[in-house]
């Protein structure tokens, strides 16, 4: 297997707050890496320290002890990473509303602008490429106040891309977005990691999306350390259940656990999505669903001429699940 290239390495890193009343250590002795070409999702309960670690890795907050190395050699800057090494997208709303999108994305070029305040041809090209990469060229001349939350999020990601760093750190980039935009942002970040060989770390509460898109998970909440692994291994090991203590949700099946409060079994036969959603409707309404067996009410889900039908005991037929449920309830 090809060796991974570490773009960020944590060495015995402890993070938290040195307060007058004493130290509040959130994570201790972390020894992890962020690798080129990988999307890492950083998950854990509220208040566990995700934002604090992101800020520490971004050089916005001092580590309590230990070191972070960026790229090949040790970190050269005592204050944190250099601006051409790491870009960061935090949760703050954009305050400079009078600015337009292209101007804000241009801010990503500041590490390369020398003493001048004008963008070179190369800078302008990078800004245009960043806008294209996140598919917001059409918004380039819009004022920031004209944008939706999702569009603003895309603009902040474009700014980070224009900064052209091998590492991007993002704190809850999908907060306040609708499902389509959440999926789009996660897919975009995964694509960027692969295509541009970047190491991308996202602190997120999006359990479903993270499990489906992350190359690696950092999971906080078991002591002051992080459990790491690919999503599927962590789901099967039960460590997510241990950390989040899900109530009424079965992570292994990805389903809400329904209570079979009607004490009534129904046998069900069908295929694909129609079978799964029929089962969901029955279980959500308190029935136990089983495979075909004698002396149970039986439902066949059949598709004919592009239309679904539900047939009870080979006699009574329904053309919606709602009407089927009404029959049983
Ligand atoms: N400036 C600060 N000074 C002291 N303690 C702080 C400061 N900021 C955060 N904390 C504490 O550090 C802990 C971790 O906070 P942090 O915001 O990093 O958690 P988080 O995992 O990002 O939470 P969430 O998922 O709710 O965003 C919390 O207990 C918080 O009260």
Span of the ends, CA to CA = 57 Å
- Total helical segments: 10
Number of strands: 17
Query: Main beta sheet: strand number and arrangement?
Result: 6 strands, mixed
Q: Give the SSE order as H and E letters.
A: EEEEHEEHHHEHEHEEHHEEEHEEEEH
CATH superfamily of the largest domain: P-loop containing nucleotide triphosphate hydrolases
- Low-confidence blocks of residues: none
The domain tally reads: 2
Structural class comes to alpha/beta
Oligomer: single chain
Strand residue content: 25-35%
Gyration radius, in Å: 25 Å
Bound molecules: adenosine-5'-triphosphate
| Portion of residues within helices | 25-40%
Could you tell me the CATH topology label of the largest domain: Rossmann fold
Outline type: globular
Output mean pLDDT.
90
What does this protein structure show overall?
One of its GO terms (molecular function) is ATP binding. Keywords: ATP-binding, Cell membrane, Ion transport, Iron, Iron transport, Membrane, Nucleotide-binding, Transport. Residues 10-247 form the ABC transporter domain. This is Iron complex transport system ATP-binding protein. It is found in: Cell membrane. With 329 residues, the chain is α/β, with parallel strands linked by helices. The chain has two domains: 6-250, Rossmann fold; 265-328, no CATH class. It has helices spanning 50-57, 101-106, 121-133, 149-162, 179-196, 207-213, 231-237, 239-244, 272-284, 321-328, and strands at residues 6-19, 22-30, 33-35, 39-43, 65-70, 86-89, 167-171, 199-203, 216-221, 223-229, 249-250, 255-256, 265-269, 288-290, 298-304, 307-312, 316-318. A six-stranded mixed sheet has the order 6-7-8-4-9-10, sandwiched between helices. A five-stranded mixed sheet has the order 14-13-15-16-17, with helices on one face. The longest helix is centred in the middle third of the chain and has 18 residues, at 179-196. It is globular. The N and C termini lie far apart (57 Å). The mean pLDDT is 90. Adenosine-5'-triphosphate (ATP) is lined by residues 17, 24, 26, 44, 46-52.
